[in-house]
Each structure stands twice: as C-alpha cells, then as structure tokens.
Design a protein that fits this description.
heterodimer; A: 167 residues; mainly alpha; elongated; B: 196 residues; Rna Polymerase Sigma Factor, Chain: A; Arc Repressor Mutant, subunit A; 2 domains; 0% strand
Chain lengths: 167, 196
Amino acid sequence: MKCEDVSKELIPYLDRRANSADRHEVEEHLAACLACHARAEELRKLWTVLDEVPVIEPSFGFDARMRARIAEEPRPRWFRWFVPQPRLALSMALLLAVSVWMSRLPQDNSGFAGSAQSEHEQFQVIKNLDVLENYDVLSKFDALDEVPAEQQPDQKNDQQQQQDDGG
Amino acid sequence: MLDVKAGDDESFNLLLQKYRTPLVNFLYRMVRDTATAEDLAQEVFLRVYRARKQYSPSAKFTTWLFRIATNLALNSVRDNRHRQMEVSLDAAPADEDVAPLQLPTREMRIDEHMVERDRADFIRGVISTLPEKQRVAVLLHKYEEMDYGEIARILDCSESALKSLLFRAYETLRVQLAPLVSPPARHAGKEARHEM
C-alpha cells in the first residue's frame, strides 16, 4: 500500500471501523513509513483536541416552544372525509354546469332523418337488384342515352294531340 | 417514528427528547449561533411532524432527520454570508486613511485566539472554516458518531468519496489546529536555557 492509498483508509483505521484486511494493510504501511506514522499519531491527538468542544443544552423553553408550534399545526378531523376538497368540488360544479348547458341545447334530428332516407334508398336498390343484374336490361340502357331531353308537359300534350289527330 | 406516523403525539415527544440535544449541537456547530441553531432545530422537528404521514421506514430516521438539518443549516449559512456581503458592500468606508487590513500570520492569529477566546471557541472557529461538505462530514463523523454509509447518504455521495473527504478535512484541521495538537515546547526550551 502506497502513502496516497493509505490516506483513504487511515480515518477508518483510526476510528476502528476498517475491516480486518484494510486494517492489516494500514498497520503494515505505518510500520514501514515514518511520515504516515507521524501523521496518524497527530490525527489521534487531533481527535482528542476536537473532544474539547463542549456539548450545549437546548434552552429551557425549547420544548414548550416546540409544543406550541406543533399545537398550531392543523389536525386531521374525522368529518374531513365528508368535506369535499376545493378542487374536487370545483370540478364537479363545472361538470354539472356543462351537463345542464348541453341538455338545454335544441335537439337536431336531421342526422336521424338523413340516415332513415338513405336506408330507404338502399332498400330500393336491393329491391331492384334483379333488374340491375339482368344483362339484357342493362344492354338496352344504351338506347336510352339517345333519348332527347325530357320535354315540357304541355309540349308532350301537344304532340299527343297531333298524333291522335293524324291517327 | 412509525408511532408518530400513526398519530401518536406522545411518541413525537419521545423523539423530541431523544434528538433535540444532538440536533441543536450539530446546528450550533454549523451556524455558530445558539438562537439560530435552536430556531433551525425547531424547524427541523416541525418539518418532521408535517411529513410524518409520508415517512417510509426504508431509511434510518436519523439519516432523514440530519439530512433535513444539513439542508436547513447550509441554507442559513449561505443566507447569512449573503447578508454580510450586502452589508459590507453597502457600508461606506469609515475612514479612508485607515491602512488596509493585514491578514495576520498563522502564529499571530493563533496567539490572538488563545488570548481572546478559549480553546473550544477556537476549535469551533477552525471547523467552521472548512468547506461546507467537509464540515458536515466531520461533525456527523466525529460528534454524531454516524457510520460511513449513513453520512454518505446524507451528503449524497459514495462511501469511498466520503473517506477521501474526511481525510482532507481532518488533514486541514490537523494543520490549522497544530498549536493545540502539537504545542511548541516553550517550557522545555526555557528550562534548557536555565540549565545553561
């Protein structure tokens, strides 16, 4: 063990808290190194000197003052379980207010009506599915493209009347 | 402490009786003022009382107690130092012609201390010149006789680092307190001169 290594173990050696292996190594070094031996002796004396600092006693009123301060501290009460915490109470009040506000909003049934209408259209498609899947019917749809735009009802009536007259 | 946690005030009184003296002494050696030390000790006990419900027996009670005390003491020392600095900066110089303060040599300072103060005050003064962490380590090791693991937990460092810290602290004290540790053999010198 070198001098710098012994420095870390010297205090535990002197206060008798070093383990036996470290203690043995320090003792070996101290027996061989005069400088470290002298330092260890001075540290022993230093501890005796440090013991000269007297122990002081707390003042007479220390305990009384302490008890008074403890008595001022808020104490837990059994009924505290029933007293709502301020944050919780505020959250609940806000939640209640939002619920009341939402319940007073006008009811909008358009979405429901729309969904009912689309269901009806789907029903019609399903109902006409046989027709739509019939190839013959679909192939004849090309002729419908050539049909002129829908005429006005009064023009239709005039044409019908001309045909009847001609016929 | 577990009884205190359960709401037993009598157990808190027992804790107070057991730890008030070591706590006040530790704080007094840190701040070097009796009234401040007592105020800080009361604050430590008050904090313990307030935090009793959160106490978990994973750490030793003394570790917890002295950790609170160390933090409060260091804050107090820093605040006080800061206050003193403010005063010295604000204070106008009393006399411009006064010669600049000469720092006395170690021999002179020690002589003055020997005359004006008793040895205990001198020792306390030297301890208070140690860096904060070294001072706490010495006070807990020498005066509270705590084991290395507990001091390391209070100072939030490893045991190995603590041993180095303690060695450096005791070396400084050994040098600073040399006149008390190895007093110069004046009488022996006088006697030798008489014999001649």
